[in-house]
Design a protein that fits this description.
By secondary structure, the protein is mainly beta. The protein has a single domain (2-400), classed as YVTN repeat-like/Quinoprotein amine dehydrogenase (Methylamine Dehydrogenase, Chain H, 7 Propeller), CATH 2.130.10. The chain is 0% helix and 47% strand. Strand 10 (101-102) and strand 11 (107-111) form a beta hairpin.
Length: 401
């Protein structure tokens, strides 16, 4: 079944303002855009930072007080979340730009188009190499290896389901591996070899993922046959980098939620692929942040609109919109009862990023802090600390003082 997704509700935010919708009216929530200290007088206290020697593009995964993740220099680390101490490291060939998956006996991740499984002591258990050549984007004198374009920050996370490992690749193939030995069990290949930059979602007996051209695919896991697919826009791309579905999906009550490298947020019937509702950001900014679902509400960040949005899950009605001053790439988290997220200038990641805290029900700014470097990865909470991942290679642990 092929479904062309038709778009609907439109809206935008206004610079420097938070909006909350009550009934049919919008009430302005006046906010300050740049604050070193919070409006409640709190400071952000740095507990530790560790220089990992390479840009960190994705969140580390936390297990038993240890953080696991890697850098664009191909270094994979185990870090003590309490102190920032390096417990061990492993050198791979190729960029690491996704979060690892953890099993009972090891950690799995993708680096340079290969899948690695390491023990929790940092020893290689197996490696799978499909023989893919790295994508390289050239812009003037700059080379972006392992990237389709300069903003190709998000690579699919490895997904583990029972005894299978799912690896989505830039050649339009999802490889299904045996979790114990890494041997290829099966695969799915979509037409034209379109790159896959979404983390596959395993739901019921199906696998759902999006591609670089803006199409969502759903396959039956039992025989790898197509159930449905549908494109999220039915017009010619306004520019080459437009439209790709990247990052993560969320699902709730059989409804699939996601943004993309275009100006839409979509809600689809996960069984049929039919469109239930969609939101258009009328200024054209990408809605590529990873979504969060909390109490029947969807939260998602945008890029050039610099905004975090809150929607009713069932209707798609805009509840509130917070307008900041930097691009939002990752996923918001709930930290000590507040909505926390990071934002950075993706056109110059050497500029300082921001850590923002909002009231999750109203979108009101509670506090905002300027950081030492840019960050595009989702924060991780550890006890009362919040862990941030710097694009210049620093891993930070902060707490509100």
């Amino acid at each position: 079944m092929n479904t062309n997704l038709q778009l609907s509700v439109t809206s935008t935010c206004v610079e420097g303002l938070g909006y909350k919708k009550l009934g049919s009216l919008y009430f302005l929530l006046m906010v300050s855009l740049v604050m070193i200290y919070s409006i409640h007088g709190q400071e952000l206290k740095k507990k530790w930072n560790t220089d990992l020697g390479g840009s960190i593009r994705s969140a580390f995964t936390l297990k038993d007080s240890i953080l696991y993740g890697g850098t664009n220099q191909g270094m994979f680390f185990a870090i003590d979340a309490s102190s920032g101490s390096k417990l061990w490291s492993y050198k791979c060939k190729g960029l690491i730009s996704s979060s690892p998956a953890l099993t009972e006996d090891g950690v799995l991740f993708e680096a340079g188009n290969k899948v690695y499984k390491l023990s929790y002591q940092g020893k290689v258990k197996w490696m799978f190499d499909p023989g893919l050549k790295p994508k390289t984007f050239i812009l003037g004198s700059k080379r972006f290896q392992y990237q389709i374009d300069p903003f190709d920050f998000k690579r699919p996370d490895i997904v583990v389901k029972k005894d299978s490992v799912f690896f989505a690749a830039h050649n339009g193939t999802i490889y299904v591996l045996d979790v114990g030995n890494g041997i290829l069990k099966d695969s799915i290949s979509i037409p034209n070899g379109t790159a896959i930059r979404t983390t596959p979602l395993i739901w019921k007996d199906k696998i759902i993922f999006g591609d670089w051209n803006g199409t969502v695919h759903c396959y039956q896991l039992s025989d790898m046959t197509l159930v449905w697919n549908g494109k999220t826009f039915d017009y010619e791309k306004p520019y080459e980098t437009f439209g790709g579905i990247v990052g993560h999906f969320e699902i709730n009550d059989s409804i699939l939620f996601f943004g993309a490298r275009n100006n839409t947020v979509n809600a689809l019937d996960a069984d049929s692929g039919g469109i239930l509702w969609s939101f258009i950001e009328e200024e054209g900014g990408w809605m590529w942040g990873d979504p969060l679902i909390l109490e029947k509400t969807l939260y998602i960040g945008g890029s050039d609109n610099h905004s975090l949005y809150s929607f009713d899950l069932e209707t798609g009605e805009l509840i509130w919109c917070y307008k900041g001053n930097k691009n939002i790439v990752g996923k918001p988290i709930l930290y000590n009862g507040e909505m926390a997220f990071t934002a950075s200038n993706v056109y110059n990641l050497n500029e300082p990023g921001s850590l923002v805290f909002l009231d999750w029900e109203s979108g009101t700014l509670e506090r905002q802090f300027e950081l030492e470097e840019g960050t595009i990865a989702t924060p991780v909470q550890y006890l009362n600390s919040i862990i941030l991942f710097g694009v210049n290679g620093n891993l930070f642990s902060f707490e509100l003082n």
